[in-house]
Input
Amino acid sequence: MRHSIEMEKLTLGVCYYPEHWDRALWKDDLQRMKQYGIEVIRLAEFSWALMEPEEGKYDFSFWDEFLALTAEENMKVVFCTPTATPPAWLSEKYPETLNADGDGNLMYHGMRCQHNLTSPKYLEFCEKITRRMAEHFNKYDCIIGWQLDNEVNCETNEYYSESDHEAFRAFLKERFGTLDNLNEKMGTIFWSQTYTDWDQIHLARRSTVGTGIANPHMQLEQVRFISHSAVHYLALQASIVRETAGDRFITTNGIFGNLDYQKLMESGVDFIMYDSYPNFAYAMDRPDGGEGDLKDRNSSFNLARTRAISPLFGIMEQQAGPGGWNFRIHQASPKPGQLRLWTMQSVAHGADFVSFFRWRTCSFGTEIYWHGLNDYSNRPNRRLEELSLVKADFEAIKDIAGHPYEAAVGILCDYDNEWDGQKDVWHGPLRNFSTDGWFRSLQKKHIPFDFVDFREETNLKDLEKYELLVYPHAAILTKERAEILTQYVANGGKLVMGCRTGYKDIYGRCPMQPMPGEAAELCGVTVEDFTFLAPGEPMEYVNWNKKRIPAPVFNDVLEPAFGGKAEGFFEGNYYDGKPALVTKNTGKGLAIYFGGCFAEETADAFLEALSIQTPAPWLVLPEGCELAKRGDQYFVLNYKAQSCEITLKKKVTDRLTGNEIEGTYEVAPYGVLVLL
Output
């Protein structure tokens, strides 16, 4: 499956909570939604207590009443399983369903997501409510799809209940078979950690250096276990819904840590819905935006990550107003134009469905400051005025639905390295630094890119559409993945790899072999020496192509091998003059090993040297604009509060206005163009 949403046209939706409002408001709300172009509403993700007020006593009458009205008003529905918020009676009567922290302290009822994912009792209750709901509500034609749970692994992505410890042992038994095999793979001979009984095994607990720190190889298996548990948790619900759902889609929302979304897609979920909140960049607890000068533009990074899971996707929660709980995440209001800009940012990156959070700001509860399209007063406001513009935009380019985002550059990523790097300070921070450097460079040079999930199942066809692949710091690099990369290069691809590549195996161990392991022959290189750049040391540079480019954070001192050629050399440390950049031609293509991390300026130099250019050379844009391409149409997004000047070297049509434009053109503050 392509794991893509299938919409006939661009479609607007909104998250609605009829349980929060007097029935007298319902009809007017639905009718006003339609006036603003909203065709789909999301319902019920937090309403378990309403549907099962007492154990085993189900009452769906509230939702029957409301769904009858939605059918009458011809409003479509995404209905949700409510398992993110178990009712109080369940939490109190069955404390084994509660999550715990690393010291075993239970997470009690009172917020949301206080449950664990492995409790047999909790899974039993999830199975019951999901089955009852699926059997009851799938009779409603207005329901076009189901959302499973809500933002799994959002409030926490670590679990330490008793059932989690037990499930972890079962997971390891299934994975390793015997204790001897587990001890060997986990290197437990170190520090006398050898296990002689399965019951001796626990998730990471408090140790001499704090809570949650353990054998690094067991720690990696722990994250794999958490992902396995989350996938199983959602797959259970998906299988139940699927029995009666017919051709309705099944999805879930958000992208959070410790969850392999590719495996989730294989478990019965059709595609992913992302929750896009660019205004986090303007939160009051992040005085610098927490995002550098790109701020809300950094949401494009997350949207690209979403696209790696589902090439065409939906937005289940699109920022509609200032966000915040009563005790955190307080934000400035979106400026006039930003609601429209952020919506079109999502569309530019592959969203065919955009649902705003929420229709009306809730007047009670923790999210009283998470503002929706309507204020408490329910009176017209500028956000609703802006929604009218979005409605017109969607109508103008509605036929772009189904057209994928197009990119010639791919940044490879994989869960093995991401998860291992969460605790490993020798490569995790490097990956984050370099991915940001490449993102910033590609954004400012107006070169669209994809994130590409690199898995054992990845084949040459998945990679060959990219002119350039960047794999910044693949500490874990298997033989199978190296072979696919070799095929990619031989067929004409360009591959760039950075320091700390290939020195670990799939368990996070460091085998007795020269670095960079499986990348050595592919890149024609051996690592002779390596070092972090200590605080206070001068910046390290590499002389390459008559340029001096940064080589920050960590350096691999290189030696050409297997036909590699040294082309760049260090400048500024005890290894001054040693090889820092080695190239190797294989077949029609080129592999490059760079012995450093990738700052933005470093990535700039690689793009120039490899002749990677914008797909719209006829369009001159300032750095403050983003360029995205879907099919044959080009999105121009201005993230600045000031108007900007662009230059078009040929006549094109702005589909949002129907106007033909050429030459010098002024884009409004937070303005959007769709050019054809």
About this structure: DSSP finds 18 helices and 25 strands in the chain.
